[in-house]
Amino acid sequence: MKMPPALPRLIALLILVAVPLVEHNAYWLHVFSLALIAAILALGMQLLLGMAGLLSLGQGAFYGIGAYVAGALAANYGVPFLLTLLAGGLAAAAASLLLVPIVRLKGTSLAVATLGFSIIVHLVILNEEWLTGGSLGLMDIPKPTLFGVSVADDDVFYWVCLVILVLVFVAMDRISKSRFGRALSAICQDEEAARASGIRLAWSKSKCFLVAAFTAGVAGGLFAYHSRYLSPSDFTFNESIEIMIMAVIGGLGSLSGAVVGAFVVVLMPEVLRSSGELRMILFGLAVILLMAAGNLGIVGLASLAAAKLFGLFSSARAWVSKPREAN
Amino acid sequence: MIYDQFLQTLLGGLAIGCIYSLIALGISMIVRATDILHFAQGEVMMVGAMTGFSSGVWAGNAPLLALIGGTFGGGLMAVAVELGVYRPLRARRVPLINVVIATIGVSIVLQNVARLVWGSEPLAYPALFETRGLVISGFTVSPQLATIVVLSVLIMAALAVFFRYSRAGIAMQAAAQDPDAARLMGISVERATVNTFAVSGMMAGAAGVLLGSLFFASFNMGFITGIKAFVAAVLGGLGSVPGAMVGGLLFGVIETFSAMFISTSYKDAVGMVVLILILLVAPMGLFGRAGRQV
């Protein structure tokens, strides 16, 4: 007897839905919403790194582009909430087309070139005051409303983020099982073999960048409404590195792992706040220790433990219900 | 006096470039020996700057002692993280990306430990070198910058001699080129790897002292400098020793000149654009050997 595979995901979703019912502290709800936004980012990164094996350090840039486009449209032109999210995603996707020439780079070269891209985008955000407000940041982002109803309350906004996270998760799940997703994992395993099987490398990789950038742009749009003030220091290359940590820490290639990784990266420094100055040291040590778990990540370790428990449980039941021969 | 200004800028660019080169060399050597992208190399540099500061102050503003203290501080720190973190991870046969992320973890830890030990205020280095302008055949030369260039060239020359003539240096190269063949020749690859980390850490530590004497030493000086050195190493071709030297110099000069002639706020962007353009033409970098996967 095996554990049904969708069960842990369903339980996790129910827990996530219930969070605002249990936790009323505005600060913590704020942090949890941020973790949901980070999870969307990590899912996009998982598509790049976990499925296609593309180490891109440019996701922070697309996050920033999405945030600024959505924030500016909302603050200056009063564009409705969902449209600005879409615009943020589309703008980030359009910007990802700039990366088309460099997708053919491999490994380290790709990582450093995309890192260069995020440094350039950060400098543009910081210095083009007419466009982004420069180092003062982008202010006066209105409260989000859906069909005329305000969704700015901490709990409602949390649920909005959760709905979008679930949509992105389902989309990524579908992608991973599609022809495109299989092409990406073929590229990840062996580029030459993939090319020989008729996969267009540059096309598939560019598409992968595009989808991941769109995801990061939507997350950026949500972040604009989440903090309602955008500062260039939110979108340095550190953001890209943090997104990479999220995707790897939970379990490389696993979508649930990306979500768990995002929660760990966002929540751990908050949880460790009581340890004061030791906080970031403990965080760094935790990152190192989790890396020792190998490919599994947190989710892999947890499911290994769960399978062991479950196996123990069912073998015990089998032992109890086994018909005994009369002796 | 436009010539004078040009030379001043060039010297400044070369001095910064030498510092990038020293760090980039370490990054390149580590990649060649272990395939690890060492994101903590900038933090090793910072530790060197801090230990150099402490030993220099303790010895009463002795520049040589600061340099020695920084060099050994950086070397010891690099050996410590190799033995304490990377080797156990490699022994567990975790994927390479995990080791790379562990280097980011190491960088976070080192940064915050340094903040605890040396505080969060930038530390002003005592005047290690002469600061009065020297006039050589009509041109004013900053002795500080000149000293940095001369010292860096000496260090890199020593490295070249070490690689060419010493037993340990030759063993390190052999182990990096082909670990299996090196093992068959009786070389301990493990020891060669530790030596690689020691030498790369010492160079980063020396770079830290030089950078600290130019500006300040502070707990967060390492990461961005490390990233720039990384870019320099990729520019020259990861894994190539001359590539790291040239890449560092080139990156330093580009950065300084674009700050001077284009805009100070976009000086980092110019370097990145040059990097991306070079990678488009030569994906392995300027001195990279095609065919080797790094």
TrEMBL record, chain A:
GO molecular function: branched-chain amino acid transmembrane transporter activity
Keyword list, A-Z: Cell membrane, Membrane, Transmembrane, Transmembrane helix
Cellular location(s): Cell membrane
Transmembrane segments: 28-49, 61-79, 85-103, 110-126, 156-172, 208-225, 245-268, 280-307
Keyword Glycoprotein: no
Topology with respect to the bilayer: Multi-pass membrane protein
Recorded GO CC terms: plasma membrane
A Pfam family the protein falls into: BPD_transp_2
Protein name per UniProt: Amino acid/amide ABC transporter membrane protein 2 (HAAT family)
Organism: Aquabacter spiritensis
From TrEMBL, chain B:
Chief location category: membrane
CDD domains (UniProt xref): TM_PBP1_LivH_like
Entry keyword annotation includes Cell membrane: yes
Pfam families attached to this UniProt entry: BPD_transp_2
GO biological process: amino acid transport
GO molecular function: transmembrane transporter activity
Membrane topology recorded in Swiss-Prot or TrEMBL: Multi-pass membrane protein
GO cellular component, one term: plasma membrane
Annotated transmembrane regions: 6-27, 64-84, 96-114, 134-163, 192-217, 229-257, 269-288
Keywords in alphabetical order: Amino-acid transport, Cell membrane, Membrane, Transmembrane, Transmembrane helix, Transport
Compartment(s) where it occurs, according to its Swiss-Prot or TrEMBL record: Cell membrane
Keyword Hydrolase among UniProt keywords: no
UniProt-listed InterPro entries: ABC_transp_permease, BCAA_transport_permease
Signal peptide bounds: none
Family: Belongs to the binding-protein-dependent transport system permease family. LivHM subfamily.
The name this protein goes by in its record: Amino acid/amide ABC transporter membrane protein 1 (HAAT family)
The organism of origin for this protein: Aquabacter spiritensis
